[in-house]
Amino acid sequence: MLKKWEMKLFLIQLFLTGFLIIIVSILGPMFLNVIIYRTSDSNKFQVMGQDLWTLIGIAPLILISGIGFIYKKKFPKYFLVGTGTYQVYTYLSYILGAEYALYSGNNEFCFFIFIFLVITGYLNTIMGIKEIKKETISSLDPKKSKIIALIILILGIVFGFLWISEVIEVLITGDVINYPGMYKDAPNGYWTIRSFDLVWSIPIMFYSAYLLITRPKTCYNTVLIFMSFGSYYISAVLFMGIAEFVKGDPNASIGTFFLFIKISILVWSLYLWLLRQKKNI
Q1: How many other CB atoms are found less than 10 A from the CB of residue 25?
Q2: Are residues 38 and 15 in the same domain?
Q3: Which of 116, 144, 267, 268 is least buried, going by the fewest C-beta atoms within 10 A?
Q4: Are residues 236 and 149 in the same domain?
């Protein structure tokens, strides 16, 4: 239980985080283009889509969470787990994925803002998990858990195979054959995202599937981290795809976009199912 002054500081941080995310999104290439990211045009289109989703999806959830904490509601903790991990992934990739030696821009002047958002992302995730642990968990049905685990396992295998085979393709040919320029135009961004996914996103999918099979009564928090992050980030991917089509990116693929729509529906369905297993939300 946080002391009164600790909760005040936490709430100040929470509202400051929400408003900073709004400001960064508006100043980015989607709107005012004050922040000029050092990356390829294709990646800028993706930043546009992600900034839009962050503005209309992530920032409001953070601010609503702050209001919820003020009124002692139970739902904010569930938002914080997903938005916090989303912050860490997104703003670390904005720092590490820029092509500082290849393109002109000024995104490095946002370094301390991005670092702040990464740190508050960690804090909010930890706070969310800490608060969730205080409540009673309905034991996950073993049969349903195994079905969910199988779905997550298949997704992990598919994404893992795609990413690893694509990396091998880059090492052999120097680019992604089906998406020319994806690697050559933004190698730093490419390695950043692939590293994050192969080190964080995909392993936690396998770990979540393993826990759902072997420990359905105690795996809730770990699986929630994956499902909430996955739901929020797959939505960002959809907005990236929309931005690519609107801006006329030659690498935009209608087939890939509809595939991610189907995956998004599946992931959100699993996430909502998981939330329904929790008492007193």
Answers
A1: 23
A2: yes
A3: 144
A4: yes
Tell me if 205 is assigned to some domain: yes
Indicate whether 20 and 68 sit together in one domain.
yes
Q: How far apart are alpha carbons 174 and 92 in whole angstroms?
A: 25
- Residues 6 or more apart whose CB falls under 8 angstroms from that of 149 comprise 208, 209, 210, 212, 213
pLDDT band at 138 (very low <50, low <70, confident <90, very high): low
For residue 271, what are the domain limits?
142-276
Count other Cβ atoms within 10 Å, centred on residue 209: 25
Within-domain flag for 211: yes
pLDDT tens-digit series, residues 59-118: 999 999 999 999 989 889 889 999 999 999 999 999 999 999 999 999 999 999 999 999
Spatial distance between the Cα atoms of 224 and 11, rounded to a whole number of angstroms: 23
pTM: 0.94
Number of domains in the chain: 2
